[in-house]
Structure to design on (487 residues):
């Protein structure tokens, strides 16, 4: 049972701030609610992603060798370079790791994520990583010019990728790491020395907020589009069409396309039976370089180095009723407080009382109450909000807000060592070196460090992941909405 933090906030101003923050969570949340008595959600059984790119890890593709200092005069050889991901709906991504001591999980699912929901949020130099990404490989495709700037002689794709990754690790993890190739090391030193703090890039596509509620006979919203794309398509989903609900602007004019800043409304006709509906926005665009990608399982966090044209979607939900409480529930990770902020709003005309983590709370009409549920770092959470008339919202995920510090080498006793992981299986443009993860300066006795913080496929990691899933302990950033009858 989760304990409830003493920090509980209520009010309309707080509601606006919390809703905006929740929308920035970019798909890590399941949002929406049951409006009125016994009204069921349209997508109860689905896994929901409310915005930003969703992708599957294909593995480490372009890499070379590096050497990590693990303390006490001992080092480990690791692989350093570019991963590739396949975007759901079409498109490819290239990423670097920003979590050196975590392994990757084969075919792990990733979601585009704000920096504040990852270890970058507490890193005062996070913007320097963005500078490195914009000024090195693969964004700097002219390797001869890049090598000349860095005084690095001659660079190849694999040594450029390794040098770039090493420079990033020094900032993201504070790691003592160097490229084994002399020219790659010169590039890493130059990038680290030249890097400047830049602002976090815009999201590819999100909606703010992505859950609204209110009375039938009104326009529910606004839902504001935030995107880096030139144009976004907008469509009411089948549940909205069946209920006669339209997606409009504030004047009631139908909307089928949008740009950054466009405000959308659910126009619910008077007399419409209590219910819920959704809309989908879609864009084809390149995901901005520097966007973070967090895993739906315990797989190392990545940061975007390059993108093809990719298909990105974002969804929003509306709930309505004619009278009584009209609740909605949202949640977001709160790395600063070490927990999950659960916000419950009420746009009805009577109080809404709900149970959360063993405590009961009441939200007055027009207000929102936010409760912080403490969660330990790297812990999976499973939080359910329940209320009258079958209201139930479930939020699942894993709190992964920190990088692991450089672990002390094991002496064969109780000391911890990094997770074991072999080199990635060569595939595609796998241009990496042939170094196995070996230890110099002494024996560690506890297994080898994951390549680039991990490999793309390993029976050991896969077996552990399957076991965790079977036990119900697998950490998922995807958050599910469940039918009340199934709780």
């Amino acid at each position: 049972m989760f304990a409830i933090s003493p920090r509980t906030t209520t009010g309309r101003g707080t509601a606006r701030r919390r809703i905006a923050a929740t929308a920035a969570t970019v798909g890590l949340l399941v949002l929406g609610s049951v409006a009125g008595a016994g009204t069921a959600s349209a997508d109860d059984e689905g896994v929901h992603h409310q915005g930003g790119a969703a992708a599957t890890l294909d593995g480490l593709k372009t890499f070379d060798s590096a050497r990590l200092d693990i303390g006490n005069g001992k080092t480990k050889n690791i692989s350093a370079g570019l991963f590739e991901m396949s975007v759901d709906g079409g498109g490819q991504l290239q990423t670097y790791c920003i979590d050196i001591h975590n392994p990757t999980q084969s075919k792990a699912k990733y979601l585009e994520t704000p920096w504040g929901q990852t270890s970058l949020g507490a890193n005062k130099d996070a913007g320097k990583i963005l500078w490195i990404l914009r000024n090195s490989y693969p964004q700097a495709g002219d390797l001869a010019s890049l090598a000349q700037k860095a005084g690095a002689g001659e660079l190849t794709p694999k040594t450029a990728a390794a040098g770039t990754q090493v420079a990033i690790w020094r900032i993201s993890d504070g790691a003592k790491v160097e490229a084994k190739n002399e020219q790659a090391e010169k590039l890493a030193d130059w990038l680290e020395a030249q890097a400047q703090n830049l602002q976090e890039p815009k999201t590819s596509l999100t909606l703010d907020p992505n859950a609204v509620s209110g009375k039938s006979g009104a326009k529910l919203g606004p839902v504001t589009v935030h995107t880096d794309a030139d144009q976004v398509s907008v469509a009411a989903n089948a549940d909205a069409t069946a209920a006669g609900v339209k997606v409009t602007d504030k004047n009631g004019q139908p909307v089928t396309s949008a740009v950054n800043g466009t405000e959308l409304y659910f126009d619910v006709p008077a007399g419409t039976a209590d219910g819920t509906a959704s809309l989908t926005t879609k864009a084809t665009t390149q995901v901005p370089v520097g966007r973070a990608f967090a895993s739906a399982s315990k797989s190392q966090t990545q940061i975007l180095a390059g993108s093809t044209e990719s298909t990105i979607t974002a969804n929003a939900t509306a709930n309505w009723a004619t009278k009584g409480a009209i609740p909605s529930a949202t949640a977001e990770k709160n790395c600063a407080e070490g927990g999950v902020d659960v916000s419950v709003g009420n746009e009805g005309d009577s109080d809404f009382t709900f149970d959360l983590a063993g405590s009961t709370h009441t939200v007055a009409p027009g207000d929102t109450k936010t409760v912080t549920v403490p969660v330990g770092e790297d812990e999976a959470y499973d939080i359910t909000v329940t209320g009258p008339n079958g209201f139930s919202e479930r939020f699942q995920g894993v709190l992964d807000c920190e990088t692991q510090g450089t672990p002390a080498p094991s002496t064969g006793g109780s000391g911890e060592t990094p997770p074991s992981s072999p080199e990635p299986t060569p595939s595609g443009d796998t241009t990496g070196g042939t170094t196995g993860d070996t230890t110099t300066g002494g024996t560690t006795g506890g297994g080898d460090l994951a390549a680039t913080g991990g490999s793309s496929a390993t029976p050991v990691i896969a077996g552990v992941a399957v076991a965790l899933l079977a036990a119900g302990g697998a950490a998922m950033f995807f958050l599910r909405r469940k039918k009340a009858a199934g709780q």
In short: Residues 1-7, 12-48, 406-487 have pLDDT under 50 and may be disordered. The chain has seven helices and 27 strands. The first helix runs from residue 12 to 23. The two ends are 16 Å apart (CA to CA).
